[in-house]
Every structure is written in structure tokens, then in C-alpha cells.
Design brief:
The chain has helices at about 1-10, 15-25, 35-45, 50-65, 90-100, 120-125, 135-145, 150-155, 155-170, 175, 195-210, 265-275, 280-295, 305-315, 320-330; strands at about 75-80, 105-110, 145-150, 190, 210-220, 230-235, 240. By secondary structure, it is α/β, with parallel strands linked by helices. α5 (about 90-100) crosses α14, α5 (about 90-100) packs across α15 (about 320-330) and α13 crosses α14 (about 305-315). It is globular, with a radius of gyration of 19 Å.
Length: about 325
């Protein structure tokens, strides 16, 4: 690692194979925490390259505990995190809204590293027990349209770096890796990213893999369709910049999206959304992100019709009932 760090400090880059070997060594415990923290810090000061990303992704997928849910052809809705906005659990709630609407969802998530509450925090607060039991995950998605995969359980490297990421408290390239290394390897994905450079990197990566995707980024830095201003949407078919009005919504304020200072507060907001007692701004943001994901599954559907499906799931109580069934089965 000393040799690797000296090279990186001299502004050299890694080949795909070198990146893969390093990630495998991280997963097998060959480096101590200080060495890993130093390695991670390099990528806080410069962007990751396509070759490095490819190597890290290959190694993480090679090491992960695979889960075959291809019979359900599920979608994952995920944000990279790291936007330092501390929003409530928008992508997780969107997953539940889709499940309530009858779509199959395999959510790959983790604890919050740069926010108070990540998707795993939200699940755990509601009594969900994480599992690697493939049969149970399959029965969960079959019965409730939703399976949840807690990332560190499925990959030794992600488990190793979790406390280091938490201690650093800043976004790292592992924010970038999470959506690319779901053990389900979903054919459909809706992904939120926190900057345009990352959006372009993902666009290139997805175009090589044949994934049906939507990459979303709010130009003021959110890794969601925040409705706070102009937003970028990149799909297989092309890209566009839209305003909240273009999507049928009004503009919301940043404070409307705040996720709270504690996991308990974040959990309360989570419940309010599912119970349809949240603010109009909170509901609209969840509906917008849900609708984009529905369009990944049905690209021929208009955004307005996708919003209507999401709204019916949420306002009818289907999303809430789906989540209650999911929690009961996974507790």
C-alpha cells in the first residue's frame, strides 16, 4: 500500500487490474484502517477514472454474495448519497411507492455515511432484520413486491470500509460504487447523483452494460429530483434539463427536504409520507422520483401518467400496506 500511495500522491492513476487487485485486498483485510483511509482520501482530491471505476466494480462484483432475482426483473431506485443535503429518505420511499403500485423492487442500500439516516437506518428503525438468505429475499419480493439488500452483508470490502467512511464523514468514491455493485445486478435502475461529472461517468458505464436507466441530478447539488430548481435527467434515449413546472409541480424550498437531526426524526418523516400526512412538498418530491422510476420500466408512459400511478399508490394506502407487510415478513 505504501508503494501505491506514493504513486497516487504523484498524480498517477491506476489501471483497471490494479484497482481490482487493491479492492480485493481491502476485502480480504490486507490493509489497516489508516492505509484504507489514506487511499480513499486520494479520490477526495481528484476524480476517479473510467478504468479505476471499472476495476473497483469488477472486484466488488466478483467478491459479492450474488442474489438471483432475475425472474422478477426488479428495479432499484438509489441515490449515491454524498450530496451533503441531509434529505429525508426519498429514494427508499420511492421504492415503497413503486412496490405499492405493483412493481417489483430490489433495493440495495446502506447506513448513512454523510447523512443522518440512510436507507438501512430507516429499515432498521422499523424493525427490519437484514438477511443474505436468498430464499427469504425471493419470497419477500414475491409476497410484498420488495426485497431489501443491506450492502455490507453482501460484500466484505463494503463491510470493511463502513466504519472508515463513517469516521471520515465525507463523501468518498464508495458513494459512487454502491449503485453499481448490487448483488442482484438489476436490469433496471433509477439513480440519483450529486454532480454532473458523476452523471456523465455513470451514463458511460450504463451504456456499456445495456441497463435500462434514468440518471437524475438537481443542478443545485441534490442527488434526487429535488424540485428546488432545474434538474438534469439522462436516459438511454438521451438527456434533458427540466424545471419543476415541466413535471407538473411547483418549486419547493431546500428546508422542505430536510431529513432531521436524528434517525428518529428521519423515521418520523418517513412514516408521515407513507401515511399521507406529510407536507405537500415532501409528497411531491417522492411522487416525482417515483414517476421517473416508473418511466424506466415503461418508457412509453407519459410522466403525468406515471405520477398518477405513484399518487394512487401513496394516497390510497397501498404503499403503506405494502410496507407493513414487508416489515412483518422481514422482522
Amino acid at each position: 500500500m505504501k508503494q501505491i500511495l506514493n504513486r497516487l500522491f504523484e498524480h498517477q492513476i491506476l489501471s483497471s487490474k490494479e484497482a481490482a487487485d487493491i479492492m480485493i485486498n481491502i476485502g480480504s483485510g490486507k490493509y489497516n484502517n489508516d492505509q484504507i483511509a489514506a487511499f480513499i482520501s486520494v479520490f477526495l482530491m481528484r476524480s476517479i477514472t473510467v478504468d479505476e471505476l471499472e476495476g473497483f466494480q469488477k472486484a466488488l462484483l466478483d467478491m459479492c454474495h450474488r442474489v438471483d432475482l432475475s425472474e422478477f426483473d426488479p428495479i432499484d431506485i438509489v441515490g449515491t448519497g454524498g450530496d451533503e443535503k441531509n434529505t429525508f429518505n426519498i429514494s427508499t420511499l420511492s421504492c415503497i411507492v413503486l412496490a405499492g403500485a405493483g412493481y417489483k423492487v430490489a433495493k440495495h442500500g446502506n447506513y448513512g455515511a454523510t447523512s443522518v439516516s440512510g436507507s438501512s437506518n430507516a429499515m432498521e428503525q422499523h424493525g427490519v432484520k437484514f438477511t443474505t438468505d436468498v430464499d427469504k429475499l425471493r419470497r419477500s419480493i414475491e409476497r410484498t413486491n420488495l426485497a431489501y439488500l443491506h450492502a455490507p452483508l453482501f460484500n466484505a470490502a463494503l463491510k470493511t470500509v463502513a466504519p472508515i467512511r463513517k469516521a471520515l464523514g465525507v463523501r468518498t468514491f464508495f458513494n459512487l460504487m454502491g449503485p453499481l455493485v448490487s448483488p442482484v445486478i438489476p436490469r433496471r435502475q433509477c439513480l440519483g447523483v450529486y454532480n454532473l461529472k458523476m452523471a456523465r461517468l455513470y451514463n458511460y458505464t450504463y451504456q456499456q452494460t445495456g441497463v435500462d436507466f434514468a440518471i437524475i441530478h438537481s443542478l443545485d447539488g441534490y442527488d434526487e429530483l429535488s424540485l428546488t430548481g432545474d434538474m438534469k435527467i439522462i436516459r438511454n434515449s438521451g438527456e434533458e434539463v427540466v424545471k419543476p413546472y415541466d413535471l407538473g409541480f411547483g418549486t419547493v424550498k431546500p428546508e422542505d427536504l430536510f431529513g432531521g437531526d436524528t434517525v428518529e426524526k428521519a423515521s418520523s418523516i418517513f412514516d408521515n409520507v407513507l401515511e399521507n400526512t406529510c407536507t405537500e412538498a415532501q409528497k411531491n418530491v417522492v411522487l416525482a422520483n417515483s414517476a421517473i422510476a416508473i418511466q424506466v420500466i415503461h418508457p412509453e408512459m407519459s410522466f403525468a401518467d406515471a405520477v398518477d400511478q405513484a399518487r394512487e399508490s401513496l394516497e390510497s394506502g397501498k404503499a403503506l400496506n405494502t410496507f407493513k407487510q414487508f416489515v412483518e415478513f422481514n422482522s
